[in-house]
Amino acid sequence: MIKPVIFNSADGSDSVLHPIWNSYYHSKHGALSESLKVYIEYGLAYRSQIQNSIKIFEFGFGTGLNAYLTLLFAIQNGVTVNYQTIENMPLLEDTWSRLNYPNIQTALGSSNEYFQLLHRLSWGQEFIVCNNFILTKIIRVLSLLNLIRNLI
Questions:
Q1: Of 35, 70, 106, 115, which has the fewest Cβ atoms less than 10 A away?
Q2: Is the pTM of this model over 0.85?
Q3: Exposure class string for 37-63: b at 16+ Cβ within 10 A, else e
Q4: Which phi and psi (to 5°) does residue 19 adopt?
Q5: Whole-number Cα distances in Å, 51 to 81, 102, 116
Q6: Class of the 5-151 domain?
């Protein structure tokens, strides 16, 4: 079985390289920096100035970093977030549990408990993670034929 490769990006946060697709889950220049700037500051923080209840659909749960930072933002800023994400190939616990995101203190805080919870919650169900963050993870399994086509 080919496993994703964890590497340390330039800002000290981990990311993942998928060996089959030869693609990075986050910028190798800084996974955490990228998500905080692009996803949180330019997206969520901007939108939260307009409305305090936000629906998010993320294509690709990946490492869970964006969902994790969104949860921390929602808690810190009192914004209600209904977060839905779809993933083709979820990372296994032996990969996601080694990522260092919950060990890095950010302006949004940090929480190993919430990071693990986001990954451990079942797929295909809606969960109230806390009073202002709802998560639904959807798994879309590629058929073997589609997987082979994508490899060629």
A1: 106
A2: yes
A3: eebbeebbeeebeeeeebebebeebbb
A4: -70, -30
A5: 11, 28, 28
A6: alpha beta
